Amino acid sequence: MTLYGEKSPPADDRPTVQVTAVTWPDDGSEPATAAPSGEPESGPSRPRRVRMLLAAGITGGVLAAVAGAGAWAYAGDVPRGTSVLGAELGGRSRTDAHRELRAELDRRAAALTAPVRVTVGERTAEINPADVGLGVDVAATVAAATAAEAHPVSRLVGSRTVDPVVTVDVAQLDAALRKVLGNQVRGMTMPAITYQGTTPKVVQPKPGLAFDPQRSAEAVRAGWLAGTPVTVPLVESQPATTAEEVDRLVAELAKPAVAAPVTLRTDRGSLTVPPAAIAKSLRFTADKAGQLTPTVDVKRLRSALGDDLDSIEVPPKDATMTISGGRPKVTEGRPGQQLDSAALGRDLLAVLPKSDGREVSGELKPTPPALTAEKLAGLGIKERVSTFTTRFTGGMASSRSQNIATIAKEVDGTVVLPGKTFSLNGHTGERGYAQGYRDAPVILDGKLVPGVGGGTSQFTTTLFNATYYAGLEDVEHKPHSYWFDRYPAVIESTIFWPNLDFKFRNNTKYGLLIDTSYTSSTITVSIWSTKIYDSVKTEYGPRRNITTPKLIHLEPGPTCIPSNGINGFTQDAFRVIKKDGAVVKREKFTWRYDAEPRYVCGPKPS
After folding, report:
1. Long-range contact set of residues 122-131: C-beta below 8 Å, sequence gap at least 24
2. Which segments constitute the YoaR-like putative peptidoglycan binding domain (predicted)?
């Protein structure tokens, strides 16, 4: 006969405890000693053994029950009692849990794909979940459910709900919300202090109103799952420097800074820093948080002081290179003595709030040249890479020829480091009478008129072609409005201060030297470096869209310059660059020339 526990478990897969039937003693007496050998056991000794058997049976049953319960609790990958969105995933394998969760999402598809009603400030709109990447990451959610609770007791009797892992594209959501927000958003007005002349001008800080992308995403995730309207919180952001602090900076620094000059003393003498120079160099800069910080921009200060610094500073001189005997020759530069910029900026800022004692001591420090002979010699400038020559008339007695020679001297010996861009306007600065330039014909408003610096375009064209045939990168150039037969068509460039410039970039790993020379009828520019291309040539397309010049009569006088007129046309030029016997680059240049009118100084014949 088999005896089961007092309460039978329901018919499911929980373990059953099974024990063997025994008879309990009636009198409760202690068991007698064992009978002599050969005699049968009697009376009292039997109940003790029975109790031992019973205890062993119960212990084994309990262990079996625990083992069975553990097997039940740990069945599957997901702990029992775990649910997501109402779907029971407990006791399932990962694969089954994935399948069940996807089925639940399919059942909720209508709700999860419905537009989300979003309110931002005073505006309300609907956002399509798919447009902002709203969705449930099934794999991540099942992983979270699997790791929900590992405690054995909780696995056996507990239950838990795991929130789904919701994805959203924060950037796309932010863009969608900004459309809803419209003109309600406003950035922070950063505080500012500037000078108009020597008068401080103030911009007071104002708070910004916007939303935090992460907080917005959290609100939309929650509302989407719950199927409820979403209110996206707007956040007001205050600049770090308050209006009161701006007013204090004006009263304690900006105004007193320009109330009087400052004396700068050095071992080589003294100079006065006027209020106008202080106003140009004292900067109040706001960072992204709106924190306003005053500094002295020493570079601006040096520019404002100009030639006054020459009385106390000795500028360093770079090493130079010239062509001698057909070979590059390096001449060592020299160090200079210049003000310690960091110390000057710090010390000047410290005295600007003061009404008296406005003096600073400037320390002159040895300043090495930017380009030493050793560095220059290591740039790989060893051979002539390209050369180009154009011709002019009038000899060196003409103003135009002298302008060509003047600009050629300014550019001669210029070294352009690898990766750097050369600007002709930037190198020469303004080309006026003070710089030695003279009046000569220039093109202005479509006709030739006297103008300072006429002829410099011929040098520009010559330099452009030298860099062009060296294979260097063209950054900026503009051909003339009219074509002149002293220049190659299309491959030429004009220049005019300050609007028209010529720029090229040294797109090689070597330095380059610009070498110029001239005669009474020619200007030549050569580029020296390390040759990297086999050849650079130009292939021309045919001229097209030919136009003929008009006849125009001008008022005779010193400003009237006659011309014979030139046809207009359009043409293509192709720069073909070869290396190791193969074409490595083919660049197209196209220009449309106007027909230059035939100008006659005098009235029309009657």
Report:
1. 122/184, 123/180, 123/181, 123/182, 123/184, 124/180, 125/179, 125/180, 127/173, 127/176, 127/177, 127/180, 127/220, 129/224, 131/172, 131/176
2. 242-360
Quick check: is 25 in a domain? yes
Q: How many domains does the chain have?
A: 3
Query: Mapped to the 3 state alphabet, what secondary structure does 432-460 carry?
Result: CHHHCCCEEEEEECCEEEEEECCCHHHHH
Q: Name the token pair of 294.
A: 């005053």
The Cα-based distances of 297 to 80, 281, 287, 344 in angstroms read 69, 5, 16, 10
The Cα-based distances of 329 to 333, 382, 387 in angstroms read: 13, 10, 18
- Among the three residues 356, 376, 396, which one is the final residue of a domain in this structure? 376
Type of residue numbered 486: R
Question: Looking at this protein, which amino acid is placed at residue 79?
Answer: P
Are both 427 and 359 inside the same structural domain? no
Do 261 and 365 fall into the same domain?
Answer: yes
Task: Give the least confident one: 65-79, 358-372, 542-556.
Answer: 65-79
Place of tokens 């911009």: 203
* Per-residue 3-state assignment (H helix, E strand, C coil) for 219-283: HHHHHHHHCCCEEECCEEECCCCCHHHHHHHHHHHHHHHCCCCEEEEECCEEEEECHHHHHHHEE
Q: Are residues 432 and 336 in the same domain?
A: no
Residue type, 454: G
341 plus 439 within the same structural domain:
no
Total residues found in the chain within this entry: 606
Beta bridge partners of 18: 4
pLDDT in the model for residue 75: 53
Q: pLDDT tens digit string along 2-17?
A: 333 444 444 444 444 4
Instruction: State the CATH number of the domain containing residue 345.
Output: 3.10.20
- Cα 591 from chain centre: 35
Checking if the pLDDT of 431 tops 60, the result is yes
Domain hosting 407: range is 379-601
Tens of pLDDT, residues 571-587: 999 999 999 999 999 99
Residue 63 lies in a domain: yes
- For the chain, what is the mean pLDDT? 85
Residue 464's closest CA among 385, 521, 388?
A: 388
How far apart are alpha carbons 130 and 233 in whole angstroms?
22
Considering the domain architecture, whether residues 429 and 365 belong to the same structural domain is answered as: no
Q: Are strands 116-120 and 327-331 parallel, antiparallel or unpaired?
A: unpaired
- pTM score, whole prediction: 0.59
CA distance 468 to 491: 8
Secondary structure class of 203 (helix, strand, coil): strand
**DSSP H or E segment with residue 410:** helix 399-411
Query: pLDDT, tens digit, for every residue of 472-511?
Result: 999 999 999 989 888 999 999 999 988 999 999 999 999 9
Q: Which amino acid is at 558?
A: P
Domain boundary among 345, 376, 407: 376
The distance from CA 438 to its chain's CA centroid, rounded to whole angstroms, is 46
- Three-state SS annotation for 98-151: HHHHHHHHHHCHHHHHCCEEEEECCEEEEECHHHHCCEECHHHHHHHHHCCCCC
Residue 290 backbone dihedrals phi, psi, to 5 degrees: 85, 20
**62 membership: H or E segment, kind and range:** helix 45-73
